Automatic annotation (TrEMBL):
Any Gene Ontology CC annotation: apoplast
Binding locations of Mn(2+): H113, H115, E120, H159
Gene3D superfamilies: Jelly Rolls (2.60.120.10)
PANTHER family attached to this UniProt entry: GERMIN-LIKE PROTEIN SUBFAMILY 3 MEMBER 3
Name this polypeptide is given: Germin-like protein
Domain Cupin type-1: start-end pairs: 65-213
Keywords: Apoplast, Disulfide bond, Manganese, Metal-binding, Secreted, Signal
Annotated localization: Secreted, Extracellular space, Apoplast
Family, per entry: Belongs to the germin family.
Length: 228
């Protein structure tokens, strides 16, 4: 009886510990509005979005047509990415998910970037693309994907994509965070414009699998800094 009681208490302790574990952040930071500060009387900020009254929820809240919309690729990188979160698609709220659509014109690229709060599953719905990511030891993992193929980018990894086919390409993605965030390395390091786009496009096109065995700094540097 004593052993059974200990087992039950252990199970309850583990269950309670699991239940009170903190959720992942949905924003970069959320300092507490401590007692006595001016923020105590300001509007409340949630780590996420408040729920609708269940009596007002309809089927329309669980449907979106935003993935139908072709992105504008008339820019230096010849690509467009649209991330859809619960703000635009209410049914996603509290599910820990976001959706995305990426359109890439012929010879276009999606510049190196990361999602600090999410892993990403990419599904190629049209065209041929090459997708890759760089891990924390600066190893490069990349693959050519055709229509119907899927590629996974682990959480927070710097990743990139470019059109290696002869037609317009479209990727549909799912991210496992309600607010995945985006850090655009190219814009931060090289700025925007045709020169930055040309530099990144050139480096990605010549990034070979041999660079996996290079010293740690060289994989990232080959994309952003090194000369041919």
């Amino acid at each position: 009886m004593s052993n059974s009681r200990c087992l039950i208490l252990s199970f309850l302790f583990i269950t309670i510990t699991f239940c009170v574990a903190d959720d992942d952040n949905l924003q970069d930071f959320c300092p507490a509005a401590v007692k006595g500060s001016n923020d105590r009387h300001a509007p409340i900020f949630f780590n996420g979005l408040p729920c609708q009254n269940p009596a007002n929820v309809t089927a329309s809240d669980f449907k979106t047509m935003k993935l139908r919309q072709v992105g504008d690729t008339d820019n230096f990188f010849m690509s467009s990415t649209n991330i859809i979160t619960a703000e635009a698609f209410p049914g996603l709220n509290t599910l820990g998910l976001a959706l995305g659509r990426t359109d890439i014109d012929v010879d276009g690229i999606v510049s190196p970037h990361s999602h600090p709060r999410a892993a990403e599953i990419l599904f190629v719905s049209k065209g041929v693309v090459t997708v890759g990511f760089i891990d924390t030891s600066n190893q490069v993992f990349k693959k050519m994907l055709k229509e119907g193929d899927v590629f996974i980018v682990p959480k927070g990894m710097l990743h990139f994509c470019y059109n290696t086919g002869f037609e317009f390409a479209t990727i549909i993605s799912v991210l496992n965070s309600q607010n995945p965030g985006v850090i655009d390395v190219t814009g931060t390091v090289l700025g925007s414009g045709s020169d930055a786009a040309a530099h990144v496009k050139e480096r990605l096109a010549f990034l070979s699998q041999k660079e996996v065995n290079h010293p740690p700094s060289q994989a990232t540097d080959s994309i952003l800094h090194s000369e041919l």
